[in-house]
Amino acid sequence: MKDCTEYIQNLCSYVDGEADDSICKEIEKHLKDCPECRVMVDTLKKTVVLCKEGEKKHLPAELRAKLKSALEKKWKERFGNEADEETPPDGEK
Questions:
Q1: By the 8 A CB rule, do 11 and 40 touch?
Q2: Is the pTM of the predicted complex or chain greater than 0.90?
Q3: What average pLDDT is seen over the chain?
């Protein structure tokens, strides 16, 4: 059985409807037994909706830099060395 981190890598494509059917079935099976991942998927879906519907606001450069730094720190704490291989929270590599 895979652990949650192996499913997390495919959640964005799953939520966007771009994942292969076999991956979708694996994720859906996992979600039945994993309340933490269900919360993550629900939160991700809500975030996508808010981003699409929300009004764009420009953050001051200093605040944007602080936010980016905090997100990168949390990303690395959560995913460790995988953070170097994954897309960082701001979407840039």
A1: yes
A2: no
A3: 83
